From TrEMBL:
SUPFAM superfamilies: Carbohydrate-binding domain (SSF49384), PKD domain (SSF49299)
Taxon lineage: Archaea, Methanobacteriati, Methanobacteriota, Methanomada group, Methanococci
CDD domains: PKD
Keyword line: Membrane, Transmembrane, Transmembrane helix
PKD domain location: 438-490
Identification of the protein by name: PKD domain containing protein
Gene Ontology molecular function terms on file: carbohydrate binding
SMART domains named in the record: PKD
Length: 678
């Protein structure tokens, strides 16, 4: 009998286990183990597996500070996007995803989202989650979940990332070049930035480093900017420069660079972005970019990736071909969680095979490797995918292929500014107008060994490379620059400059003389800016030397349409008498770099009132007569105060006398304090 009971009990346990295995509810993040380098990105797929139709999905995904993700890096699947209510947010190390379906409630195994994280610091980290599923009746379902272990390996190379900010057609837009993971204090940065011919450079500045820069050399040539910067910063991560571009042509644009920090190589992440009509999300497998520039002596990272794959992939195999006499391939790797992987490099090709756990989908990197030029030649070659196959549980799937990437080899000598590059002498200059009449001119030349001759249109001239000149009166002036180099070449640049008293800014303060005993007092700086030009301008307000005062914002950007006026009211904390200083900049959206600067300063006086000191005076009076006269004489000024008191002989009058004397002495003390002005 006992044996039969045990059998039934065991059978029941097994059936319950099988039921929950087959019909349970699970939320998974895959892959469960990730290994990446510092400052690399990695994708996690969030998926649900349920036997019930879902009415609601909620998950809180917790991640450490060493990893980073933004809302823009969370891509919902088609099923998640079909939810009638949806909310996605990132705050304080947590990702919140909340979905509600009123119709077409999903069930089975499906993807919720792809999360793209960035690894910031080396170490081993854990990503956890707290999911909650509910059925169409609103009942909460028992749900299991998992965590992800992330191993971040230290990277010996500095990363340079090029990031466009909201690029638009017929509008100025910024591209920020950032240094990440600097391995030592940075004292020198050199390099070349490449941009397409249909992009016009409107402005370039290094204000991100403020006072850390000691010297800058710039040369513009053939849609590239050669630069050398001396600076002093111990920051590991910082923004190096901001370029402002303008274009009126639709298309996809690539901005790339070769950059060295302290003479050491860096890994550059280029910007590849569309401008103009909205380009729909593309489903493909292949190279992540269409072309790359690689300098001789440097290496570049190449990715083979998959985008918007709407099924789970279990196997990937393919073949890549390249010219081994021009390029060297090294350090092949994959970031996928694999069951099996292998690749071989031979006969100008890479054969690879990857087997996963069957949960890979949406967006993911398949393979990555370094490419390095073998010959110091100015040439172009390509890397081509001759075949690639993706398999799900039903077999091979059909995906469009981006089958090649163009590699432009840049010879080492093109990184210098010397004549032997066979580039003819070219010159261009930028203009900075300060307080309407002082003008700084900046020559941008592709040859360092150059002689300069400027004429400023008012019978003045200069032979400096970057002269300053102050105009005495308003007017139109023709600015000319002539340069000669040691090879006898000559180049010219000129423009028409209007000098006019504009100062389209007005600065007022809510209080310039403050009487207060408080340690911090808030006043308001009211700044009115107006656009006096016939074109849209871009500008900013900056406060400087704010050691003794604290503005709520030290940098305020703005845009102004023609004849538009804007008013900014900035709270400023004052702790002692100080001088508030700053300037307003206007940028002109034209091909020549022209900037207007108007400075301002105002003395703010904080007066703390003197404390009033009270002295107590005591007098013993012996009353032996009916009349008493009291006189006070001030030494500096002869003030005489006389009080006549008549006393009656009865006791009540005596008390009144005492009260009268006390009142008199109080009044006397008050007059005394006023005279001495305590």
């Amino acid at each position: 009998m006992i044996t039969m009971k045990l059998k039934y009990l065991l059978i029941s346990v097994v059936l319950i286990f099988l039921f929950y295995t087959a019909f349970g509810h699970e939320v998974k993040l895959t892959p469960e183990n990730v290994s990446v380098n510092e400052y690399e990105y990695f994708n996690l797929t969030l998926s649900a597996n349920t036997s019930e139709k879902l009415g609601g999905f909620e998950d809180i995904i917790c991640f450490p500070n060493a990893l980073n993700i933004t809302k823009d890096n969370i891509i919902l699947s088609n099923i998640a996007n079909s939810a009638d209510l949806k909310d996605v947010s990132v705050l304080n190390g947590k990702v919140w995803i909340s979905l509600v379906w009123f119709n077409n409630q999903p069930s089975g195994n499906f993807t919720i989202a792809t999360l793209r994280f960035k690894a910031l610091n080396d170490g081993i980290y854990q990503i956890t989650q707290k999911p909650k599923l509910s059925d169409i009746e609103g009942q909460v379902l028992d749900t299991t979940c998992n965590s992800v272990r992330v191993t971040v390996k230290p990277l010996n190379l500095t990363i340079v990332e090029i990031k466009p900010i909201n690029p638009k057609l017929n509008n100025n837009f910024d591209v920020v070049i950032s240094i990440e993971n600097a391995k030592e204090p940075v004292y020198n940065i050199t390099g070349i930035i490449y941009y397409p011919k249909d992009l016009n450079v409107v402005d370039l500045n290094f204000y991100y480093l403020e006072n850390n820069i000691s010297n800058v050399n710039l040369n513009f040539d053939n849609n590239s900017i050669q630069f050398s910067i001396n600076l002093n910063t111990s920051k590991k991560d910082f923004d190096l420069m901001k370029l402002t571009f303008f274009t009126n042509k639709e298309g996809t644009y690539l901005i790339n660079a070769t950059i060295k920090v302290n003479g050491h190589k860096t890994t550059v992440k280029p910007a590849n972005f569309p401008i103009g009509k909205k380009i729909p999300s593309e489903r493909f497998v292949g190279f992540s970019t269409f072309e790359k520039n690689v300098s001789y002596g440097d290496k570049e990272f190449i990715y083979i990736t998959a985008k918007n794959i709407d099924t789970n992939i279990s196997e990937i195999k393919g073949k890549i071909e390249y010219n081994s006499t021009i390029l060297k391939i090294s350090d092949i790797s994959t970031s996928l969680n694999t069951i099996e992987k292998n690749w071989t490099v031979k006969n100008n090709s890479i054969d690879f095979y990857i087997k996963t756990n069957g949960t890979v989908s949406n967006n993911f990197n398949i393979l990555s490797f370094w490419v390095e030029p073998i010959k110091n030649e100015n040439t172009t070659t390509e890397i081509k995918i001759s075949q690639i196959y993706l398999f799900n549980e039903n077999g091979s799937i059909n995906v469009p292929i981006r089958d090649k990437i163009i590699i432009h080899i840049i010879p080492k000598e093109n990184n210098t500014y010397m004549k032997e590059n066979n580039t003819s002498l070219k010159v261009f200059f930028a203009i900075e107008i300060i307080d309407d009449f002082k003008v700084n001119f900046y020559s941008l030349c592709n040859d360092n060994n150059t002689h300069y001759f400027w004429t400023f249109g008012d019978n003045s001239n200069s032979t400096s490379a970057n002269p300053s000149h102050k105009y005495e009166k308003e007017g139109l002036y023709i600015i000319k620059l002539k340069v000669n180099n040691s090879f006898g070449e000559t180049s010219y640049d000129e423009c028409l400059l209007e000098i006019k008293k504009l100062r389209p800014i007005n600065i007022t303060f809510s209080n310039k003389t403050i009487h207060s005993n408080k340690s911090n007092v808030t006043i308001y700086c009211n700044i009115t800016v107006k656009n006096p030009f016939s074109t849209k301008i871009y500008g900013n307000i900056q406060f400087i030397d704010y050691n003794d005062y604290k503005p709520e914002k030290t940098y305020i950007p703005f845009e102004l349409l023609p004849n538009e006026t804007k008013v900014f009211s900035i709270p400023i904390n004052i702790s002692k008498s100080t001088q508030i200083k700053g300037y307003v900049e206007y940028y002109m959206p034209i091909k020549r770099l022209i900037k207007y600067v108007w400075s301002f300063k105002e003395n703010i006086e904080l007066i703390k009132p003197k404390e009033v000191k009270f002295n107590n005076y005591y007098y013993n009076l012996t009353l032996n007569q009916l009349k008493i006269i009291i006189k006070i004489n001030k030494i500096r000024k002869n003030y005489t105060i006389t009080k006549k008191i008549e006393i009656e002989e009865n006791e009540e009058n005596f008390i009144n006398l005492i009260v009268s004397l006390i009142g008199f002495l109080i009044g006397l003390t008050s007059i005394y304090l006023k005279i001495h002005k305590f």
